[in-house]
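hey so i finally got around to running the thing on that chain from the lab meeting. sorry it took forever, my laptop kept dying and i had to restart like 3 times. anyway pasting the input first so we r on the same page abt which one it is
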Amino acid sequence: MSHGSFRKMIRESIHESQKCQRNWDLDKEISDEDEKLIIEAAQNAPSKQNLNFYKLRVIKNRSVIEDIHSKTKGFGPIYSDYDPDKPETGQYNGSDEGEFYTNSQTMANMVLAFCRDEPEIKREENDETEEDRMMAIGLAAGYVNLVATQLGYATGCCKCFDDSIDLYGDVPVLLMGVGLPDKTKNRRQHHSEDFTFPTLKKYKQIDTQIIV
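ok and heres what got predicted. didnt touch it at all, straight out
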């Protein structure tokens, strides 16, 4: 049975890893040992029949990261009238008019890009691999979220980016920033622009029933 302090650490990690980090301390580095463990988490998450539905591209080159970040300008004015302190009255205006911002979670110390891969075998001829791929990538991102948080890092996923991103022939399905947060800023403040991302966390109500 786990010691109470260990259980507390797990609980704190769960709630901390749920948050998206938007700015980073680029003067610091992820240690080699931590980097290897984070990558190991991404490589070894569960998947259907333990098959490889995705490729993992680990990006540390700053110029490549900045190029990727420049192609994530998709956070738009749909959220401009949302009041995070009053989620029950917040409305999305649904407009495409206004300023769009880049998703600066992709400016992290390290970016993981999950790209499509095709399993070498199929259990059935008509297997629906796209659904299995999305589940596998989601599980892997969850593993990275929790492991990176327990190691003292922050993360942020990004699905909103141009399909012009080309990683030596591979196009990402999901981008994930991992790194050291900028402790001088609110985690929702854009890394390089005068903008603070809203949070929709108060909308999240998971209907849960325990069946015994």
